[in-house]
Amino acid sequence: MTKNPLKEKLKDKKIILGSGSPRRKMFLEELGIDFEVRPKSVEEIYPEELRGGEISEYLAKLKATPFMNDLEDNQIVITSDTVVWHNGVSLAKAANHDEAFKMLRTLSGDWHEVISSVCFTSKHFQKTVSGVTKVKLKDFSDEEINYYIESCQPFDKAGAYGIQEWIGMIGISEIQGSYNNVVGLPTDLVYETLINLVS
């Protein structure tokens, strides 16, 4: 039987996922590689002048900093951050129902960008890659927005929505780019980067 080419490339490496996200964990599992989950919390504050992908790249690197002094030679830490960028504004995680409603009302009927940055950190290198997906949502009714917020509680998601949830099933008008990137990890870029890092 043909072996998983990425798993073979990484057989002498120890991969650490520095995130507690169940979606990112699921994606790495589906890539078929061995890894351990070891999230470490950081205060996600970034300079105000950063725009779009600069924000997600900065935060992905920031999340790697607690690991940097303890890494062994064969370890690679993967950290990531996702930004929803709309009309020059970053829509972060909503703190409550009202904030989530305002975000979804703003996104309703319009295009936005979902930018996921992934940082690969070892004792010897650090590399960051970013995926950008353009998404257009349909024009939601207030009833649809309220139902989604109440049933799915999307307070852990940038832009207050998860494309894999009910609102994605009924509300994605168009998408340009990687679907997985919108869920939270540009798996194509993760695969390509890991293959090349250990070549």
Could you walk me through the main structural features you see in this protein, from its secondary elements to its overall organization?
There is one protein chain. The chain is an alpha/beta fold and 199 residues long. The chain has helices at 5-9, 22-31, 53-64, 97-107, 142-152, 166-171, 179-183, 187-197, and strands spanning 14-17, 35-37, 75-86, 89-91, 111-121, 126-137, 172-176. Strands 1, 2, 3, 4, 5, 6 and 7 form a seven-stranded mixed β-sheet that branches. Strand 1, helix 2 and strand 2 form a beta-alpha-beta unit. The two termini are 22 Å apart. The model has no long low-confidence stretch (mean pLDDT 96).
